[in-house]
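Worked Example 4.2. Consider the chain below.
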Amino acid sequence: GSNIIVQIVIYDLPNRDCHAKASNGEYTIANNGVANYEAYIDAISAIITQYPTVRVVAVVEPDSLANLVTNLSDPNCSAAQQAYLTCTTYVLKTLTQCNIWLYLDAGHAGWLGWPANIGPAATLFTQVYKSATPNRVRGLATNVANYNALQVATADPITAGDNNYDELLYINALAPTLASNGFPAQFITDMGRSGVQNIRVAWGDWCNIKGAGFGLRPTSTGLPTSYLDAIVWVKPGGECDGTSNSSAPRYDSTCSLSDALQPSPQAGAWFEAYFEMLTTNANPSF
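Applying the procedure from the previous section yields the following structure tokens:
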């Protein structure tokens, strides 16, 4: 019906996850990856066109643009840069139906909120936004699959040196810069695993963090800034971030750190123990 919004994640870039290993995708640039990706987007587009009364919100390619801001010194990311930009622009040019709204992924406060990163991030996001106009980009998605709070009274010690130590501070710092560059971005923020704070050893730790809990419930009301369209849950709570088995394909050592719940299955597999932990530690509780 007209009151239903379907939330999807577009996540299949060639050479995906260029600065990590756990979520490497099915397409490679060397093996027709860009064309395969465009076919993937075409298929999504056809389905959206088929159901014009269903409103769709799409989070576009978690981590991809953020990697182009901070990780081009990694040869894997520099090699993927042009394909990432080409493919993201193709999304904007293709998913133009009146019943879809796009939010480009914008990392999180602990990644792009640092003083050295937020300006270059705003420049890149604006560049991509303007690469295909008119478009259906509503704004940016933050904290996807991460653990940061929307708003805290006291900063987690791991955030020392970054004045944008929660997602609200990051959004309020980034949005005016984007607007001045010609990108009037609104935001959605993933709170699916943000119910418990001060549980990471380092802010860059991302894999199956121990002690996490489901966070603020999805809502579009009572929000603390006009830049925020909604609190959402993007990352499915029981979906594993990556395996702790060092002999397994796609092993990433981050998943064996002391703050990662172990043993864990491959990325994308159901992780029952993690789901139960998130439920037990949910804040607010169920």
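The first helix runs from residue 33 to 50. Strands lie at 5-10, 55-60, 100-105, 137-142, 186-190, 228-232. Compare this with Example 4.1 before moving on.
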